[in-house]
Design brief:
Distance between the termini: 27 Å
Order of helices and strands: HEEHHEEHHEHHHHHEEHEHEEEH
Structural class: alpha+beta
Shape: globular
Amino acid sequence: MKNDSSNLGDNGVQQADGTFQPDWDDTFLQEIHGVTLVTGDSHDTVNDKLASVKDILSGAVTEISTVSGDVRPGDEAGHEHFGYKDGVSNPAVQDVEAINPGQTTIDQGVALLGRGVDATNNPNRPSWALDGSFMAFRKLPQLVPEFDKYGPKPDLMGARFVGRWKSGAPVMNATTQDDPALGADASRNNDFKFVKGDQSACPFAAHIRKMNPRNDLSESAIQPHMILRRGIPFGPEVSDEERQANATAQERGLLFVCYQSVLASGFSFLQQAWANKPNFPPASSPTPGFDPIIGQTIGGGVRTMTGAFVNNTAQPLNLLAQWVNSKGGEYFFSPSIPTLKNVFATS
């Protein structure tokens, strides 16, 4: 991913030899060959399994770093650090998962190698790649106190930035105030379409509209670019001191993980062609601007968007802060369990 960081819009500098050096944590500036993800119901469970994995791999690998994520406490469980319910817009995989009303459904081959459209488009995949997936990992620190206090009506503006209220309720169906019952109802919280050419209810640039422009484009144009997101928050909860100062003192954010069968059609495409493109969705007037959550400018510069103000959706807004920054990442291949057991473990 380091070689892709400039294309993704990550902050950094062009060095004398012409190479781009992203402003990443030192850990991710090194060459990384693999990753092990360990999840569990407690830190003790995870640490025990991690110790077992390290014992198995002892002498074969060198550990570069360990990063720890945590489900947020209490009522914030399932929400990322800005407070928004996470994963609501994830697509369903055809013939694998139950499909809720309005939920985007993808062919198995959009996520899994050797299935569906992937088998058709890439017939020469090796047999051991079947049911594997390419994984994109990003460490994304978030400036939470700064985001929470942005604008004259932070809750409403935040909802228009994301396209959902913190409960998960879409602004298409809850335009001016949150509706927690709607957000909690999986049979309703994806049951909507954007109105092509209209951003009165939801800005063109809103994060969920940039990432899944349902009805702005045809379903056949959207589905090849969908990803399965499986990230987790990291870092402590915001302290009272940080809230009072409206300033971040301790690092927190999202350990972003997503899966797709073709990186150039999935994560990399979404960041470059949709989030970072001011004129996407196409044929939208006024110009949509950048995704205010993850959109990045190539080579710096002020990000702008329209649609942030309910009473004047044509008025541009300068996004003076970058509330989400990349501090590293990498691309990996995630094999299927049968391939791990029957191929890799025996070779």
